[in-house]
Amino acid sequence: MKIALIAHDGKKADMVHFLSGFKNELQGVNVELVATGTTGSHIEKAGFKVQKLLSGPYGGDAQIAAMAAQKELGLIIFFRDPLDKHPHEPDVQMLMRICDVHNIPLATNPATAEIMIKYITTQLEWNQKL
Ligand SMILES: O=C(CO)COP(=O)(O)O
C-alpha cells in the first residue's frame, strides 16, 4: 500500500515525530511512502525511504491529488497548519475534494493519523501472515 505524506511548514516536525513513533510498525509491513518535496526531505533525514514529488506550492499537492484520483494511494496523511496562510490553498482544497470524490482516507491531524496507521499496519501484518 502506498501512503502519501504532506505537512505544512509549521507541522513538519510533528510529521517526523509522528512517523518516528511508528517506524517499527511501518518497516514490518508492505508500505511505500510518497511525499511532497520538502516534507519528503525531512522524512528522509529521519531514516525513511520515501518517493519525493514536487514541493507543495510548486504542484506537489496536485501530484498527490492526481495519484489519489488514479487510485494509487491507500491513505493520505496531511498535517495542515490551520494558523498559517498558504499561497497554494486552492491546491490544498482540490486535494481534499479529490479524496472525498474517490473515498480516499485522509488524516489531517496526528490523532486521526494514529488511528489509521494502527489499523492499517495491523491489517497488513495480518494479511502478510496469511
Ligand atoms: O505545501 C505543502 C502542503 O500544502 C507541503 O509541501 P512541501 O512538503 O514541499 O513543503
State the end-to-end distance. 17 Å
Shape: globular
- List unreliable stretches of 5+ residues: none
Structural class: alpha/beta
Strand share of the residues? Answer: 5-15%
Topology, number of strands: 5
Helix fraction bin: 40-55%
Mean pLDDT: 95
- CATH topology type: Rossmann fold
Largest sheet: 5 strands, parallel
What is the CATH homology-level superfamily?
Methylglyoxal synthase-like domain
Q: Could you give the order of the helices and strands?
A: EHHEHEHEHEH
CATH-defined architecture = 3-Layer(aba) Sandwich
- How many domains? The number is 1
Radius of gyration: 14 Å
- What is the CATH C level class, in words? Alpha Beta
By DSSP (H or I, 4+ residues per run), the number of helices equals: 6
Summed up, what is this model?
Belongs to the methylglyoxal synthase family. It is built from six helices and five strands, in the order E-H-H-E-H-E-H-E-H-E-H.
Please describe what this structure looks like:
- This protein has helices spanning 12-20, 23-27, 37-45, 60-69, 89-101, 110-129, and strands at residues 2-7, 32-35, 51-52, 75-79, 106-107.
- It is 51% helix and 15% strand.
- The longest helix is centred in the C-terminal third of the chain and has 20 residues, at 110-129.
- It has a five-stranded parallel beta sheet with strand order 3-2-1-4-5, sandwiched between helices.
- The two termini are 17 Å apart.
- With 130 residues, the chain is of the alpha/beta class.
- Helix 5 links the parallel strand 4 (75-79) and strand 5.
- The protein has one domain (2-129): 3-Layer(aba) Sandwich (Rossmann fold).
- It is built from six helices and five strands.
- Residues 6, 8, 36-39, 55-57, 60-61, 86, 88, 92 line the site of 1,3-dihydroxyacetonephosphate.
- The active site is at 61 (proton donor/acceptor).
- Catalyzes the formation of methylglyoxal from dihydroxyacetone phosphate.
- Its EC number is 4.2.3.3.
